[in-house]
C-alpha cells in the first residue's frame, strides 16, 4: 500500500527524519513509536505533504506521492488525523463531519459514513448540533477521528490519538479505533506515546529515535519480549 | 423620541451598506490573513462601472446592474489574486509585501481612473433619486432603502454560500485552520482564489448600492476605507458576521450622533466607541480566540 524509502526531511536545515524506510502493507496496521522529538509527527506530515521531503521516495500503491499536492493525496485516499485534533471549533459537529466528506470519493457516501462513525463513537450522536469548540478533549479527539473516517480513507494516519486525555477518555478512543479496525479494511498508521495500547491494535511496529528507524518488529514480539520493549520503549510497557 | 428615530432609521440603512462593504474585507482577511488596502478602491472601480452602465448608453439602473457588477468583480478579484496576491500569502507569506502590494494596487487604480475620467465628480441619478416615503413622521429615502435591501439580499446569499455549499464550508474551514482543511482534501489555493473573488465582489456590490446617493470620484474610496476597517476590527477580525454587525453599528452611531452634535464630528463618535469596545474586548465583538498567524 505505502512504500517509503530513504526519506529525509527537516525544518530549515535541522534534520527530523534521516533516510527512513517504512512500509505499510494492504490492510495492515502499523504502530510508530518512540520518544518525543523522534520524528514521528514529521513522518506523517511528510506523507501528507505538509512538510516537504529533502530526499527519498514515497509511493502509494505504486503512485509517486512526491508529485501530488497535499489535497491530491487526500483524493488518493491518504487521510491524516493530526496531532492536537485540529477540529473546526467554530463549526458544528455535523459540519465538521461534512468536511470529512469533502473528498470526491466520499461525497456521495456522507450519510452512510456518518452512521458508521456514530457507531464507532456513540457519544458524538447527541452532539451533532453543538460547536466543535464546546466539546471536551476526549470528544474532540473522537470527532477528529470520525472526521477522518468520513473520508473513506484507504490509509488512515492517526497522530497521538490519546495525547492529553485522561485514562478513561483515552480508553474510549482506543475502543473506537479497535471497532474501526474490525469493521473496516482500511490500512492504518498509529503514532502513539502509549505504546501498549497502540501495539494491541497493530500488527507491526516501527520505533523511531532521533529521526531514524531503530527497530521494526511484529507487535506481538514487542508485547511479549520484555527485554526488547525495555530497551526501545523504556518502561512504557 | 421621534427625532432619535429620524436619525436611527437612516443610520441602519447606510449601516447595511457599510456592512456589505466590510464583509468583503473581512472575508479576505479571515481566509488568507491579507489586509487588503485596495479594497475601497475596488469599491470605487465598481462605482465607476455602475455609472458607466447607467450613463454610458445602456441606461441600466444600478440596483438592477448589481449582479453584473458582482460577476465582473468576482472574475476581476480572482485575476488580481492569481496575478499578485497568491505570491505573498501561504508558505511565501510576507506581510510587508502584502501591504505594499495592496496599497500600490489601490494607487494604480485611483490614478488610472483619474487619467481616464478626471477628478470631476460623477453622479448616478435615476428618476426616483429624490423620492421617499413617510412612515409616520420618519422620512425614508427610496434609494437608501433600496441600497439597504440590496445589502440584505447579498448578505443572505453570502450566508447561504458559506454555510450550505461545499465550497463555502471549505472556505470557512480554511479560514479557521488551513492545515486541518488541507487534511480534509481542501485545495487551499482554490479556496483562497474563490474567497478573494467573492470578497472583492461583495465590496463592489456595496459600491453599486452607494452610487445613487454618493457622488463618484477617483478618491471616493478614502471616505469609506476607514469605516470598512473599523467595522471589521469592531466585529472581530476574521469574522464575516462580525464585520456585518460592525458595519451596521457604525452607520447607526454616525447617524444618531447627529441628534447631539454636528455631522462634521460623526466619526469622532465612531472612533470613540471603537476605542472603548476594543478596550473592553480586544478581539472585537465577535472575535473568539486570538489565532496564531
Task: Explain the overall architecture.
The complex is a heterodimer of chains A (237) and B (293). Chain A has 10 helices and 10 strands. In chain A, the strands form 2 sheets. In chain A, strands 6-7-8-3-9-10 form a 6-stranded mixed β-sheet, with helices on both faces. In chain A, strands 2-1-4-5 form a 4-stranded antiparallel β-sheet, with helices on one face. With 237 residues, chain A is an alpha/beta fold. The longest helix of chain A is centred in the last third of the chain and has 17 residues, at 167-183. Chain A has a single domain, classed as Rossmann fold (3-Layer(aba) Sandwich). Chain B is an all-alpha fold and 293 residues long. A two-stranded antiparallel ribbon of chain B has the order 1-2. In chain B, strand 1 and strand 2 form a beta hairpin. Residues 289-293 of chain B have low confidence and may be disordered. In chain B, helix 1 (2-32) runs antiparallel to helix 10 and helix 6 (166-176) packs across helix 8. Chain B has one domain: ABC transporter involved in vitamin B12 uptake, BtuC, CATH 1.10.3470. Classes of the chains: A alpha/beta (237), B mainly alpha (293). At the A-B interface, helix 2, strand 6 and helix 3 of A face helix 6 and helix 7 of B.
Amino acid at each position: 500500500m505505502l512504500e517509503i524509502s530513504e526519506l529525509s526531511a527537516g525544518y530549515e536545515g535541522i534534520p527530523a527524519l534521516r533516510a527512513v524506510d517504512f512500509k505499510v502493507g494492504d490492510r495492515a496496521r502499523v504502530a510508530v513509536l518512540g520518544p518525543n522529538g523522534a520524528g514521528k509527527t514529521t513522518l506523517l506530515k511528510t506523507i501528507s505533504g505538509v512538510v516537504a521531503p529533502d530526499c527519498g521516495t514515497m509511493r502509494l500503491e505504486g503512485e509517486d506521492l512526491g508529485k501530488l499536492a497535499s489535497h491530491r493525496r487526500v483524493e488518493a485516499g491518504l487521510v491524516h488525523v493530526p496531532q492536537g485534533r485540529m477540529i473546526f471549533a467554530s463549526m458544528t459537529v455535523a459540519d465538521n463531519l461534512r468536511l470529512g466528506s469533502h473528498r470526491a470519493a466520499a461525497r456521495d457516501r456522507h450519510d452512510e459514513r456518518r452512521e458508521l462513525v456514530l457507531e464507532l463513537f456513540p457519544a458524538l450522536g447527541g452532539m451533532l448540533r453543538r460547536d466543535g469548540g464546546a466539546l471536551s478533549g476526549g470528544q474532540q479527539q473522537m470527532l477528529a477521528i470520525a472526521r477522518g473516517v468520513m473520508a473513506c480513507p484507504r490509509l488512515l494516519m492517526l497522530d497521538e490519538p490519546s495525547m492529553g486525555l485522561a485514562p478513561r477518555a483515552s480508553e474510549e478512543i482506543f475502543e473506537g479505533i479497535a471497532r474501526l479496525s474490525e469493521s473496516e479494511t482500511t490500512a492504518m498508521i498509529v503514532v502513539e506515546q502509549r505504546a501498549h495500547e497502540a501495539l494491541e491494535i497493530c500488527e507491526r511496529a516501527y520505533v523511531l529515535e532521533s529521526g531514524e528507524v531503530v527497530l521494526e518488529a511484529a507487535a506481538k514480539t514487542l508485547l511479549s519480549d520484555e527485554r526488547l520493549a525495555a530497551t526501545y520503549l523504556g518502561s512504557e510497557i | 423620541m421621534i427625532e432619535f428615530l429620524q436619525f436611527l432609521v437612516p443610520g441602519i440603512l447606510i449601516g447595511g451598506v457599510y456592512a456589505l462593504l466590510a464583509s468583503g474585507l473581512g472575508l479576505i482577511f479571515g481566509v488568507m490573513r491579507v489586509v487588503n488596502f485596495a479594497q475601497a478602491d475596488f469599491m470605487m472601480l465598481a462605482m465607476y462601472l455602475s455609472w458607466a452602465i447607467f450613463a454610458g448608453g445602456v441606461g441600466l439602473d444600478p440596483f438592477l446592474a448589481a449582479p453584473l457588477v458582482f460577476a465582473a468583480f468576482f472574475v476581476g478579484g480572482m485575476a488580481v489574486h492569481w496575478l499578485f496576491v497568491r505570491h505573498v500569502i501561504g508558505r511565501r507569506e510576507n506581510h510587508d509585501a502584502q501591504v505594499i502590494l495592496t496599497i500600490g494596487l489601490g494607487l494604480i487604480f485611483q490614478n488610472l481612473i483619474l487619467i481616464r475620467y478626471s477628478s470631476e465628480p460623477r453622479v448616478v441619478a435615476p428618476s426616483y433619486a429624490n423620492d421617499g416615503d413617510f412612515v409616520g413622521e420618519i422620512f425614508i429615502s427610496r434609494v437608501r432603502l433600496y441600497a439597504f435591501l440590496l445589502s440584505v439580499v447579498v448578505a443572505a446569499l453570502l450566508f447561504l454560500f458559506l454555510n450550505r455549499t461545499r465550497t463555502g464550508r471549505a472556505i470557512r474551514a480554511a479560514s479557521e485552520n488551513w492545515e486541518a482543511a488541507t487534511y480534509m482534501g481542501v485545495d487551499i489555493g482554490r479556496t483562497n482564489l474563490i474567497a478573494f473573488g467573492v470578497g472583492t465582489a461583495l465590496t463592489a456590490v456595496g459600491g453599486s448600492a452607494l452610487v445613487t446617493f454618493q457622488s463618484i470620484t477617483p478618491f471616493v474610496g478614502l471616505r469609506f476605507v476607514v469605516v470598512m476597517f473599523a467595522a471589521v476590527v469592531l466585529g472581530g477580525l476574521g469574522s464575516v458576521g462580525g464585520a456585518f454587525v460592525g458595519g451596521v453599528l457604525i452607520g447607526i452611531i454616525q447617524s444618531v450622533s447627529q441628534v447631539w452634535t454636528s455631522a462634521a464630528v460623526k466619526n469622532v463618535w465612531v472612533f470613540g466607541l471603537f476605542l472603548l469596545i476594543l478596550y473592553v474586548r480586544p478581539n472585537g465583538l465577535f472575535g473568539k480566540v486570538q489565532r496564531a498567524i
